[in-house]
């Protein structure tokens, strides 16, 4: 620990001379002690189980044990000057106590009641535990519990539910931020403002996670992300009807972009703010196509305006994720989506070029000159009586004009180079993927897999059809209990003279392919393991065309990789 600043503070009278600063413990000591504390918990739990037996999990003792462990953990985590081992022991004891209480509440109460009590307990722990990082974790937990409570209140199974919950939970966080701002203006309530800061940090992380969740998979990221709530593409209205919910989401998203721009303009007060209108209009237009983009950008603006730089970085990452999710949007053909993004990029590049023109810095200097002059004159002071202000103003003008005549800043050059590099990389990756698929179609063997039964309520959803196949090993876990990571499972099948899959059998890890059979490689998706994909998209109004589908037509390579190219009827002819 560097003690130079402590000595300087004593010399300048900022701290009392007798005040001692405890040096921080070396991180290896903290790490090893924490590991020892965690390893001490399993024997403790085993001892409790031997002591209380089945009554711990089936009787009221889980309440008693949970409260005692949580109370002891709070005492250990609140204390100062205790041994490091006891401090580290507090967290696993707290988690154990909360798990015991959670088990009891889940057994005796409804889900809503358990979540409400859990939210109250989280609030109590936020007040009781002084550690900032613990309050941040508890803030995230409170946001999750609030989301679950709202979800049970709405009781509406809609693909747009996550989008609505993210905005409502974000509004709650905004209200808490207002309370924090008001408390921070009064010295007597400064402790409340300090308490809410880490809580809000954890809360905002959950809000950003919900926005990313509602957007779905993003560009160049596998679409097989686990979605516990069964995320699916937003359902459009029937043909000939107006999708008022979708229009409302688009309007809210665009409005939030405007709110974010107004927030930054008010916080930073740039010269000639009208020049920022073009990018705001472009982003608002994109937000109408990506409902989660508006909230991501308004949170980015809010974090920048309040100087929460880490959260701003997370909000920027969430915004990029949402932009990339436009690639998987089924409502527009890929060519039209590409045109939308190219047009938006061209407009932004033209605006950036216009802002970097030599006259822009001169205009800013003139604007600053006029503002200084008006401010001095409004105070009733003649300009010739304020030489310092005039000299400063002239220096600002000269510096700006000199910068306008010089070369672009190194940062701008690096930014342009990075953008071009990422653009070229994206084009190369996309074209390589296209070439790979075309090669698979060209060289693959035609095979037909019979479609399996699925939930009739989700078979046809607007312009989207859910698919399943009569193959073993599909779903969250295969017949061998294989998880959703590691080597991909293989299914061995035989093909008849028409190429229809017969006698499918799951191969065990490392098992050789039987003679006369061909492999099919399963792929992880949102619904678990499947063959290539669990979805088939089509144009609006063509649901009747694809309803008679009985087989999926694939192109198969010898190594088991496949590609779904069509759906066919019982006669194996295209529909």
Offer a concise description of the structure.
With 575 residues, the chain is mainly alpha-helical. The chain has helices at 4-11, 27-52, 55-58, 61-78, 84-108, 111-128, 132-154, 161-184, 190-215, 244-268, 277-289, 293-305, 309-325, 334-355, 358-378, 387-405, 410-443, 456-459, 543-546; strands at residues 445-450, 460-461, 464-466, 490-495, 501-506, 518-521, 523-525, 528-530, 535-537, 551-556, 562-568.
Order of helices and strands: HHHHHHHHHHHHHHHHHEHEEEEEEEEHEE
- What does the oligomeric state look like here? single chain
Alpha-carbon distance between the two ends: 73 Å
What share of residues is helical?
55-70%
- How confident overall, as mean pLDDT? 76
Extended strand count: 11
Gyration radius (Cα, Å) is 30 Å
DSSP summary: helix tally: 19
State the domain count: 4
Tell me the major beta sheet.
3 strands, antiparallel
**Model regions low in confidence, pLDDT < 50 over at least 5 residues:** 223-240, 371-387, 403-408, 455-462
């Amino acid at each position: 620990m560097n003690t130079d600043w402590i000595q300087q503070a004593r010399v300048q009278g900022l701290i009392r001379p007798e005040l001692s600063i405890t040096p921080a413990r070396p991180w290896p000591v903290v790490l090893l002690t924490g590991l020892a504390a965690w390893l001490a918990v399993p024997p403790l739990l085993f001892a409790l189980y031997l002591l209380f037996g089945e009554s711990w999990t089936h009787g009221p003792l889980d309440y008693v044990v949970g409260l005692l462990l949580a109370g002891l953990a709070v005492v250990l985590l609140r204390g100062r000057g205790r041994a490091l081992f006891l401090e580290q022991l507090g967290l696993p004891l707290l988690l154990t106590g909360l798990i015991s209480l959670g088990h009891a509440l889940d057994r005796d109460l409804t889900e809503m009641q358990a979540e409400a009590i859990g939210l109250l307990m989280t609030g109590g722990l936020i007040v009781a535990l002084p550690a900032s990082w613990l309050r941040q974790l508890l803030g995230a937990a409170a946001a999750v519990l609030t989301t679950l409570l709202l979800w049970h209140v709405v009781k509406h199974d809609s693909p747009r539910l996550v989008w609505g919950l993210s905005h409502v939970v974000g509004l709650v966080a905004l209200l808490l931020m207002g309370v924090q701002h008001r408390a921070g203006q009064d010295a007597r309530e400064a402790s409340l403002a300090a308490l809410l800061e880490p809580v809000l940090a954890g809360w905002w992380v959950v809000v950003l996670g919900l926005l990313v969740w509602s957007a779905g998979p993003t560009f160049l990221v596998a679409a097989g992300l686990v979605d516990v709530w069964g995320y699916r593409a937003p359902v459009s209205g029937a043909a000939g009807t107006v999708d008022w919910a979708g229009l409302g989401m688009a309007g809210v998203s665009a409005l939030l972009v405007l709110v974010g721009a107004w927030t930054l303009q008010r916080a930073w007060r740039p010269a000639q703010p009208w020049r920022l209108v073009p990018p705001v209009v472009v982003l608002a237009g994109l937000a109408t196509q990506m409902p989660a983009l508006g909230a991501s950008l308004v949170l980015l603006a809010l974090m920048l305006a309040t100087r929460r730089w880490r959260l701003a970085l997370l909000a920027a990452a969430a915004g990029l994720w949402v932009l990339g999710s436009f690639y998987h949007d089924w409502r527009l053909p890929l060519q039209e989506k590409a045109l939308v993004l190219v047009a938006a990029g061209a407009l932004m590049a033209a605006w950036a070029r216009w802002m970097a023109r030599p006259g822009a810095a001169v205009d800013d200097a003139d604007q600053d000159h006029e503002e200084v002059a008006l401010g001095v004159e409004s105070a009733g002071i003649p300009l010739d009586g304020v030489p310092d202000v005039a000299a400063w103003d002239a220096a600002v003008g000269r510096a700006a004009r000199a910068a306008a005549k010089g070369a672009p800043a190194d940062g701008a050059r690096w930014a342009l180079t990075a953008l071009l590099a990422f653009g070229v990389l994206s084009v190369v990756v996309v074209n390589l993927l296209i070439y790979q698929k075309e090669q698979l179609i060209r060289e693959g063997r035609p095979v037909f897999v019979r479609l399996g039964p699925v939930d009739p309520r989700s078979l046809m959803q607007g312009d989207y059809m859910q698919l399943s196949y009569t193959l073993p090993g599909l779903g969250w876990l295969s017949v061998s209990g294989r998880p959703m990571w590691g080597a991909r499972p293989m299914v061995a099948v035989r093909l008849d003279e028409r190429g229809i899959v017969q006698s499918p059998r799951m191969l065990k890890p490392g098992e050789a392919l039987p003679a006369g059979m061909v492999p099919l490689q399963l792929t992880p998706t949102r619904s678990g393991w499947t063959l290539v994909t669990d979805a088939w998209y089509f144009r609006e109004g063509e649901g009747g065309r694809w309803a008679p589908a009985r087989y999926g037509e694939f192109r198969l390579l010898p190594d088991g990789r496949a590609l779904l190219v069509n759906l066919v009827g019982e006669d194996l002819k295209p529909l």
